[in-house]
Design brief:
The complex is a heterodimer of chains A (about 210) and B (about 190). With about 210 residues, chain A is mainly alpha-helical. In chain A, α3 crosses α5. Chain A contains eleven helices and no strands. Chain B is mainly alpha-helical. Chain B has a three-stranded antiparallel beta sheet with strand order 1-2-3. In chain B, a hairpin with a 4-residue loop joins β2 and β3. The longest helix of chain B is centred in the last third of the chain and has 22 residues. The chains are: A mainly alpha (about 210), B mainly alpha (about 190). At the A-B interface, α3, α4, α5, α6 and α7 of A face α1, α2, α3, α7 and α8 of B.
């Protein structure tokens, strides 16, 4: 990874670098700039980190092979979002097909979180993550996707609107209701009661 | 909980309401912050060195014909052989409607428009089928399936692969739907 690649900090600079023939630097910067977003979207569609990483690699290979045809009518992120969703739909189809003779389940992504750090804190994080994601699964798909794009991927409503083809106003309503429902569900979990108890304990001690 | 009509005014109030709720509920704010941290760490770990892997994949990515060969465990020398397999699967000669696009099925019941590189030769299908019938020595017995299954899988794989590449050209195109892909299975 070169320092020069890191100096390309915007999509405009990256595209200009591709046009100028600085392709290797541009490609590195392009992947680094968007890898978390692409992996995040792929994770939500595929459910485990290993498949999501494979999908992300496929997305970037396809995108880089076609980058010269990118006209700029949409943002690079919107373009990548569409490629990612299509690649993931195809991967899920393949999984359905291959599941006829699959020998075992893949590693669960929540276990990966715990495995890679191997501490008590990591185990607790993994457990909480599992709980939170099970709550997310209870949201309607549109609210879930809106929440994840807004909260985890930190997209603006205008960016989401371009990706999802839904008005910014409707997305705001989706996000609002997603947060409220998640909060309501979280209040029923043992985590919340544990935190409340800890807070009260701290107050008493002080 | 009753959800509002999405035409409801004062939407900016919605974000403020959420911010206020989190301000007033420290454990809830803590929960949301914690899951964001976990999520960020997961993606950072999973994408470490991704740019290096992508660069390597770009340089070694085999041609479509080679990709089929790798999956089959046989040498697939050209795209003509790939098209030959499609010929076997579809059971009819694809008729090019325009470059890269064909319509399969009969005039009365046309099926999904797909993309193939070339019209297969008359002799190629049987050769391709015979090659595909040989199981890969490396494949464990539990994963060996009939040539028909492999060929049907790979044919759809190839078609979807082509669809994906074709769609990349159009930034404003709608996404490929599950139903659209499932339609490719019709008659296979």
């Amino acid at each position: 990874m070169s320092a020069a690649a890191l100096s390309l900090t915007s999509d405009a600079e990256i595209l200009e670098a591709f046009r100028d023939g600085r392709r290797e630097r541009a490609a590195t910067a392009f992947v680094r700039r968007h890898q978390r977003f692409v992996h995040s979207v792929a994770m939500r569609h595929l459910g485990n980190t290993e498949d999501a990483r494979d999908a992300a690699q496929d997305v970037f290979v396809r995108a880089l092979q076609n980058i010269d045809r990118f006209k700029g009518d949409s943002s690079l992120q919107t373009w990548l979002y569409r490629i990612t969703v299509n690649v993931c739909v195809n991967m899920r189809r393949k999984h359905r097909w291959l599941s006829f003779f699959a020998v075992g389940e893949g590693t669960d992504e929540r276990d990966v979180v715990a495995d890679q750090t191997g501490t008590d804190q990591a185990a607790q994080d993994a457990e909480f993550d599992r709980c939170f994601r099970s709550l997310l699964e209870q949201l309607p798909p549109k609210q879930r996707e809106t929440f994840c794009l807004r909260y985890f991927d930190e997209l603006s409503y205008d960016e989401m609107s371009a990706m999802l083809g839904t008005s910014a106003g409707a997305l705001k309503a989706n996000y609002h209701w997603a947060v409220k429902k998640l909060a309501e569900m979280l209040r029923t979990t043992e985590y919340y009661h544990h935190w409340i108890a800890s807070q009260n304990h701290d107050r008493t001690e002080h | 909980m009753t959800e509002p009509n999405t035409d409801q005014p004062s939407r900016d109030m919605l974000d403020q309401e959420i911010a206020q709720m989190l301000d007033q509920d420290a454990p809830m704010a803590q929960a949301f912050a914690r899951v964001a941290t976990i999520d960020r760490r997961r993606h950072e770990q999973a994408t470490r060195n991704l740019s290096v892997d992508v660069a390597a994949a770009l340089t070694r990515r085999p041609s479509p014909g080679q990709r089929w060969g790798l999956r089959l465990g046989i040498a697939v020398p050209s795209m003509a052989a790939v098209a030959a397999v499609l010929y076997v699967v579809i059971g009819t000669t694809p008729q090019p409607a325009r470059v890269g696009t064909v319509t399969i099925g009969t005039a009365e019941t046309p099926r999904t428009a797909i993309v193939v590189p070339t019209t297969p030769s008359a002799a190629a299908p049987s050769a391709a089928l015979a090659s595909a019938s040989k199981p890969s020595a490396a494949a464990p017995a539990s994963q060996r399936v009939s040539a028909d299954v492999i060929i049907a899988d790979l044919a759809v794989d190839y078609v979807v692969d082509q669809l994906l590449d074709a769609r990349i050209e159009d930034e404003n195109v709608v996404r490929i739907t599950e139903a659209e892909i499932d339609n490719l299975f019709v008659g296979l």
